[in-house]
Amino acid sequence: MTSNCQVARIITNFGQIGSLVLGVGSAYLLNIQKTPIAVPGIDVTLDLGFQFALLISAMLGYIHFLQKYWEKNVEKQKLSALFIDFSFWDLPRLRQPLLLIPIVIAFAIFVQVSIKSSWLLLIFFAILVFVVFFIVKRFQYHLSPTREYEKLYEGWISDDKWYERWSKRIKKQLDAYVGVRTRDLYESGMTKSETNRIEIVSALHQYFEKNE
Helix count (H) and strand count (E) of the chain? Predict the structure, then answer.
């Protein structure tokens, strides 16, 4: 049963990669023709618009392939928990450099097709700006101090010993004074840095969330 599933996955992967190769390759071959090719029997010319549509279709198929790849390997290869982060954070950092090869090839063909038409060039530029915008936004998020604090918070709340330690301190303070404030939980030698403040706030939040 498992081997049949693996064979089915391999066939599906080859099919998705084949659709990309077919779309990009067809667009390239049509583009290098000196005169536009017309389909016999129907009044359709395989012009620049058709070539651009082929490239878009190929890239949509490749995005689907990337999504399936991410779903299968997100835990095994410790990829980002969100597909948008995998696309605009992991890939630009060369976490999976081989996956960028089709994108580089498609980019070259996109440029080759688009420079022959001003409106196609405008569309391609808009797509490029959209992609770069999301890459910059994800990099700003992951490299910001906010993300570092989020990582600390995620580590704290998943640590039972951390919660047990802070819950004892908070309960002791409540038993003695009925109320508790952030400044009441600073220990001797504990500086009032932003990291320590966030840790105390996180502990209070967790405690009162579990003991309403």
Answer: 8, 2
